[in-house]
Specification:
Blueprint (H helix, E strand, L loop, with lengths): L2 H15 L6 H20 L7 E2 L20 H11 L4 E2 L16 H13 L10 H18 L6 E5 L2 H15 L4 H4 L2 E5 L5 H9 L6 E4 L10 H13 L3 E8 L11 H10 L3 E6 L9 H6 L8 E4 L1 H4 L7 E5 L2 H8 L32 H10 L2 H23 L3 E3 L7 E6 L6 H15 L5 E5 L2 E7 L7 H20 L1
Helix pairs in contact: 4-14, 6-8, 6-13, 15-17, 16-17
Bound molecules: pyridoxal-5'-phosphate (PLP).
């Protein structure tokens, strides 16, 4: 190409590519429109369903193929509203009490916005000392909360599943397990363990490891005497007890294993002790929770999920490892092109402690709200949820025909209706279906030891006393209509 044409081509490409960079006036107009859209979502929450099963508008997305040029923002947001924001679970509703709800708290959204605008590189201290210090500060705060020493290390992940995976890989490397050892290595957990533990083992290549299911008591908590005898029995049989996973709040029913007792057995038998606190660990910010969760600090590794227990939008989990060296050794690699970064070791870098390299600056969405509102409202919200669960458990126990599960350790209550005639499981399947079709609240169901239960999981930031009273009425009236039909 001749030089002048060459330059002309570059200039023309620049002109078009600059459409990706709106100027100040355009930015401000875009922000206004987005803000007004998000305000409508929040302001209409009171009347919005918590769940919309039918009317799947999302297929319409496929009609809007990407064009070569722009579309007006109003049109694009209308598509978003119709195709995405109006079906399925409404996670921002106070009526969302299915699975494990959470947030999001609004300042987190602003943290995400700022992180995306500044795009600080939080992977390595060299890239952004401030971003890395900010994240490590959050991790040290969490470590202090659960009772780990200052020297513990950790990583903010995309969620609890990846955090569990990181802990499993750390335990594997710390015990120097090689593939020839896997079929002899034993993992102890209960049937209540979250499936992300099994998925983590599989992802870590440990599908041949022996899973030893430890029996639970009538409150679905690990029987520590059984754990102890299982370990001794496996040792006698020439196996290698390697890892025990306890729950700081099961997803099914919120049950907390006897964490301190498990610690004693793990310690005595030199087994890596991991606690899955993705649902429950942040309740340690409350006085009630601290007692229930006693012993968390005695584990080797622990997972928490700020996008559950700290009401953040999806996309933030956390793993903590007591022995920082173990976490560092499991993930440290060196790339020749990153040689300039090698001397900057003042703070541990997230990319040295996880499989990720470039990553979302996900600490900002937690740091900002903590700085803006302080710790107290988080603790208050968590204590409110604990008390709401006790209140709901009481109210359901008083209702005719309903059977409630154990008094909640944390904020999940399981219950079912006992029809005097017909199959109890079938009745409750109908009941959960009716509640979901109604959609004003969203509950989910589970099966524990062969019994079908409906779960009330209270952890949405917007669930308050009125929502619980409302839920009781809905549950009662749906059960009555099924009984009469
Ligand atoms: C939610 C949950 C997980 C998985 O966490 P994600 O953030 O969804 O990946 C793991 N363990 C328990 C107990 C959970 O409740």
């Amino acid at each position: 190409m001749e030089k002048t044409t060459f330059i002309k081509t570059i200039k023309e490409l620049e002109r078009v590519s600059r459409m990706l960079e709106p100027d100040s006036e355009q930015r401000s107009a875009m922000v206004d429109t987005v803000l007004s859209y998000s305000e409508t979502l929040l302001e209409n929450l009171k009347d919005a369903p918590a769940f919309r099963l039918s009317g799947d508008n999302s297929l319409e997305l496929y009609k809007y193929l990407f064009s070569e040029g722009p579309r007006p923002i109003e049109d694009v947001l209308a598509i978003l509203n119709n195709c995405v924001d109006s079906s399925g679970v409404n996670p921002i509703s106070g009526g969302n009490m299915g699975y494990i709800p959470g947030g999001p708290i609004y300042p987190s959204a602003l943290g995400d916005f700022l992180a995306a605008v500044s795009n600080r590189y939080s992977g390595h201290f060299y890239g952004s000392p401030g971003a890395v210090r900010l994240e490590n500060m959050l991790l040290r705060w969490m470590a202090g909360m659960i009772g780990y020493p200052k020297q513990a290390a950790g990583n903010l992940t995309s969620g609890g599943s990846i955090a569990n995976l990181i802990a499993i890989v750390t335990a594997r490397e710390s015990y120097a397990l090689k593939s020839r050892d896997y079929h002899r290595s034993v993992v102890y957990l209960t049937e209540q363990a979250h499936h992300s533990i099994h998925k983590g083992l599989l992802t870590a290549g440990l599908q041949d490891a022996v899973i030893h299911l430890v029996p639970t008591d009538d409150k679905y908590r690990m029987l520590v005497s059984e754990l102890e005898s299982a370990i001794l029995q496996d040792e006698r049989n020439g196996l290698h007890p390697w890892l025990v996973v306890a729950n700081a709040g099961t997803t099914n029913s919120g049950a907390v294993d006897p964490l301190a007792d498990v610690a004693a057995v793990a310690d005595q038998n030199k087994v890596w002790y991991h606690i899955d606190g993705a649902y429950g660990a942040f309740f340690a910010l409350t006085e009630i929770g601290k007692k229930v969760l006693d012993g968390m600090g005695e584990s080797d590794s622990l997972v928490l999920d700020p996008h559950k227990g700290l009401f953040l939008p999806y996309g933030t989990g956390a793993v903590l490892v007591k022995n920082a060296r173990a976490l560092k050794d499991a993930f440290k690699f060196h790339a020749p092109y990153a040689q300039d970064t090698a001397h900057f070791e003042e703070e541990l870098s997230p990319s040295d402690l996880s499989p990720e390299l470039s990553r979302h600056f996900r600490g900002l969405r937690l740091w900002l709200p903590l700085m803006l509102v302080g710790k107290k409202p988080f603790a208050a919200a968590l204590e409110e949820k604990l008390l709401l669960a006790q209140y709901f458990h009481q109210r359901m126990a008083e209702l005719d025909g309903f059977i409630v599960g154990p008094k909640p350790d944390l904020s999940i209550v399981i219950f079912r209706y006992n029809p005097s005639r017909g199959d109890i499981n079938t009745f409750n399947q109908k009941l959960i279906q009716a509640i979901q079709e109604d959609g004003r609240i969203f509950l989910s169901s589970t099966t524990i030891k062969g019994e079908f239960f409906i779960r009330m999981a209270i952890l949405s930031i917007r669930t308050h006393l009125d929502d619980i009273d409302n839920a009781v009425e809905i549950i009662k009236s749906e059960a009555t209509s099924i009984k009469q039909s």
